[in-house]
Amino acid sequence: MLAKILIKRRFKKGCNKEVLALLNEFRAGAMNQRGYISGETLVDSRDPQTLVVIGTWQDMDSWHRWKENRARRTFEAMMEIYQEGPAQYEEYFLGVPGTHEGDE
Question: What is the dihedral angle through the alpha carbons of 101, 32, 48, 44, rounded to the nearest 10 degrees?
Fold first, then answer.
């Protein structure tokens, strides 16, 4: 079942260039992972220091493999330098429960 991952981060002011470069590296790394479908980055309209990345994966296992990948953990550590607090993760399945094969 398709998985949608929301990652919310708030960044310190004045580091947009560094953050955008890291986000591009993050996405390039994800694109090479089995199960990756797409990603998009949203900027909060009222708070431009807050970004939400929405990743789409073929299944939750593919996402979890990437989340625990050594290269991704390195990117995450570099990103934390520019963040105000930890990233917030939310994991969703696409669709309504009970409408997919194997749902109870």
Answer: -10
Nearest to 30 by CA among 82, 65, 77: 65
Cα–Cα distance for residue pair 78/54, rounded to 1 Å: 19
Q: For the chain, what is the domain count?
A: 1
Predicted TM-score of the model (pTM): 0.88
Q: Which structural domain, as residue segments, surrounds residue 49?
A: 3-93
Distance between CA atoms of residues 77 and 5, nearest Å: 19
55 in a structural domain: yes
Q: Read off the pLDDT of residues 6-28 as tens digits, 9 standing for 90 and up.
A: 999 999 999 989 998 999 998 99
Nearest-5° angle of CA 95, CA 98, CA 100?
A: 60
- Where do runs of H (alpha helix) occur along 13-96? 16-31, 60-67, 70-80
pLDDT tens per residue across span 15-61:
989 998 999 998 999 999 999 999 999 999 999 999 999 999 999 99
Q: Is residue 100 within 8 Å of 14, Cβ to Cβ?
A: no
